[in-house]
Amino acid sequence: MINGTRLTKSAIRWGMVGGGKGSQIGYVHRSAALRDGYFDLKAGAFDLDPDRGRAFGVDLGLDPDRCYPDYGAMFAAESARPDGIRCVTVATPNNTHYPITRAALLAGLHVICEKPLTFTTAEALDLQAIAAERGLVVGVTYGYSGHQMIEEAARLVADGTLGEIRIVNLQFAHGFHSQAVEGDSPATRWRVDPAFAGPSYVLGDLATHPLYIAGVICPDLRIKRLLCSRQSFVASRAPLEDNATVLMEYDTGAVGTCWTSAVNAGAMHSQKVRVVGSKGSIEWWDEHPNQLRLEIQGEPARLLDRGMPYLHPQALADDRIGAGHPEGLFDAWANLHYRFALAIEAHEDRDPSGVAGLRYPGIAAGVEGVRWVEHCVRSADAGGVWVDYA
Ligand code: NAI
């Protein structure tokens, strides 16, 4: 049970790049990192516009001298301070993740970076190598994976309740961009511009979330090959897709599908993960994250609820308030941030084995998301052909 008691020796002095005034995800990062006192916001280069970024940092209560015009200035100045930041969050558009994360690692900082981690697998592997060489943590904010019922789903697969896994059905298909809303929305505009978004829109922006969750639930499945078809229903978004379907074959003989869309008109998130085994199935939906549907063939379907004593202990460990009171995305993000903090402390103590069992989306998850998108794009752009997964 989480009750606000910090499990690390100290709060991590922390900075942010991006996530400034009016940004979509900046507040969620601050809320998650500051919630349980694991991180202490000390510095920031919050905005492309230096004056606006500085004013925002001052509003947040930061020392004006530690509100920097850009990340380069921040890393240089903070490295020179005895009380400089130890970790930085990168909450900027996708095109900047690689250079900013690389510069942060080279400055000796742990990083929490937004997804997709980079544009290319080669870039992601470069970050992985630098982090490994320097003993630094890179956390990637696949935030939904912090929901506790994901842990229950993983236990139900691990203990054989579902039998042999046959089918994985993934979906993240919202309807908010059914029309060309990017005309009025800067945060949508960069998402449909390859210079800022990278080689994909919805595959990287949305589908990597359930992809990561599927990996948590079914860690033994390895993709053998995949086939992707992608469309730009709002034509001005081409070459970036606002809809895509992916077929996957795993090396166990299991198969998977993923439908991702921003033009699923009328739908809210519609992020769902369904895993079908030889004995039964589970289904989790991010709009009802406190429940997990368990269907055993021949028995009535059951709706498992977060916080209930019938869950596996691992699914109860991060409970904050007890069953019946709904927890949400902010709680899930906070769950990931305390794990990031534990991992950072263990790395600083040169004892990463101490957190070997700690589940959090780290650099390997970041690399995998980028690798998957790269394969999907290669398949789709070759006309929707099977490509071997390497
Ligand atoms: P946004 O466009 O709403 O905000 C971006 C912020 O970054 C702005 O404050 C902007 O001024 C600042 N910025 C841009 N370049 C900068 C630079 N070089 N230095 C300092 N600040 C800079 O974008 P949004 O929606 O907040 O997305 C940011 C990132 O978060 C993206 O990579 C996106 O994919 C990811 N994201 C992740 C979510 C999740 O569930 N994990 C949800 C939403 C976004």
From TrEMBL:
Q: Where is the Gfo/Idh/MocA-like oxidoreductase N-terminal domain?
A: 12-142
Q: Where in this chain does the record put each Gfo/Idh/MocA-like oxidoreductase C-terminal domain? A: 155-387
Q: What is this protein called?
A: Gfo/Idh/MocA family protein
One Pfam family, please name it.
GFO_IDH_MocA_C
* Biological source species: Paracoccus fontiphilus
